[in-house]
Specification:
mainly alpha, Arc Repressor Mutant, subunit A, 2 domains, two-stranded antiparallel ribbon, 11 helices
């Protein structure tokens, strides 16, 4: 098989695996399911990824936010996090942030550890650096839990008010909660992907 075809097949397998793992979790997804969705033989998964576990790890590799999340005015950090977790277009992950998709597989110790590392390395640490006063770590974790909880209720549970909410609807609450927990003024505007802003 030509290199270009191999790369295309590998990319298709990752795409279908992301959707399967996001919707059903690790245990309920089989190698045969992913291969059937991609229209290939299941042996190709082992050839390209080695195992179902390695396929899962690569398919849910998120690098959430990364440097882009930390770029920009500090007072807008929480709004950028809200955009990342709640309003970002994660269509390749079944419409959900890959972090939320991993929660469906959190019965596994290594997956829980990955979630903990990614949340702490990206969200909690950045918020802790912004927090003023005592108990900065606790308040950073509380705010992170609140943001992740919004994402879960909106896209996983599908509660009606949050599922229907726009960025502008959340902006005043993001500003109030973030400012209260971090002990400093924070913006509630949640910028959209094209650079426009909505909020107060």
């Amino acid at each position: 098989m030509p290199k270009r075809d191999r790369e295309a097949t590998r990319a298709r397998l990752l795409e279908t695996a992301r959707l399967r793992f996001a919707r059903e979790g690790y245990d309920a997804t089989s190698v045969r399911d992913v291969a059937r969705d991609a229209g290939v033989d299941a042996t190709l998964i082992f050839r390209y990824f080695g195992s179902k576990k390695q396929l899962f790890d690569e398919a849910t590799a998120t690098a959430p936010g990364g440097p882009d999340l930390l770029a920009g005015p500090p007072e807008e950090l929480v709004a950028r996090m809200a955009r990342e977790v709640v309003f970002h277009d994660w269509s390749t992950y079944g419409g959900e942030h890959p972090l939320l998709a991993m929660l469906r597989s959190s019965a596994h110790d290594d997956t829980r550890q990955r979630i903990r590392e990614e949340v702490c390395a990206t969200y909690v640490r950045a918020l802790e650096d912004l927090a003023e006063g005592a108990d900065a770590g606790l308040r950073a974790e509380l705010l992170s839990a609140w943001l992740v909880g919004i994402g879960i209720l909106r896209s996983v549970v599908g509660t009606p008010a949050l599922a229907a909410a726009e960025a502008a609807d959340l902006a005043p609450y993001v500003e109030t909660v973030a400012s209260g927990l971090l002990g400093r003024p924070m913006s509630g505007e949640v910028s959209t992907q094209n650079g426009e802003s909505s909020g107060t």
